[in-house]
Amino acid sequence: MSGPLAGIRILEVGVMLAGPYATMLLADLGAEVIKIEPPGGEISRQVGPSYFASLNRNKKSIRLDLTSADGQARLGELVAESHALLVNMKPSVIRRLGLTYDALKRHNEKIVCVALTGFGLDGGDEPAFDYVIQAATGIAAMTGDPDGPPTLPGYSSADNSTGLTAALGLLAQIVSGRGGQVEVSLLDVMLSQLNYRASAYLNDGVEPQRYPNGAHSYYVPAQLFPTSQGYLALFVTHDGFWKAFAGEAGISGFETMAQRAERRDEVLEVVTAALASDTAAGWERRLRPLGIPAAAVRTLPEALKEHPEMVVTAGDFRLVGSAIRVAGYEPVYEPPPELDD
Fold first, then answer.
1. Which of 202, 231, 239, 290 has an alpha carbon 20 to 30 Å from 301's alpha carbon atom?
2. What is the structure's pLDDT at 1?
3. Which residue among the candidates 130, 145, 147, 159 is catalytic per the annotation?
4. How many CB atoms lie within 10 A of CB 334?
5. pTM over 0.90
């Protein structure tokens, strides 16, 4: 079966992570993605082959000097035969290279142009790397233990989230049947993902508060807990979960969500003591059959070993495959394009 995006051609002028990740997701679903690279190649090729492969499998590549008349002429030809163009660069560069809908609609009125930037096409050229955006949107400030410094996650959450959002915006405009400009910024995406945190502040004046061990602001107990060996993530969101967990752990009391929230410190003390009687892996084996959300903290190698179905081969590279499963369709993973393709 052909992929759901078979017949869709997407051009990418992408750099590093967010843009290339967005178009790779679409390529995995069957779209034809043509990566337009400068004469020296996209800069992420310099990071290393496995890095480049992780963001650029299933694509074609063409080298164009978009600062030249010949490069612009070839770009126009490609636009005339494509459904969308996704670009992630500084706004001034996007405009200077003519990579907006206003500049390209003369070649194809139905072209969808997606500009993935730090702060929007009119937001200026200030650097907008992943960690900078996490700092600027309050994410770093609300992450970590109360007595510790602000903390960043161990992967590029802002870039990946913005890539996902850009892919959604691109497809939405294609489905509409209209060409046009679509904008997605790292700043907007990360603020939008603070949904209930932002709502609590905007409507109730509740500012985000850090709790030890990554504890949830509403649910108790919902955090990481030390065990006799390793850490356990336990996420008790309603009274049914609590009843089942308390029965297995030999805990009494705190029957309602309101009681557990009001007596947070007492609940956490009792739960911590109970969980010390077994290992994280042991608790996971005991709690999962009861339907209780719990997982031992694993390393990335451990997680990949336990989920081999997510590891795919693309040429000489072993990569994490697509997370989107479409009935009757199995992606074929091709290696990233050589620069001379």
1. 290
2. 73
3. 159
4. 13
5. yes
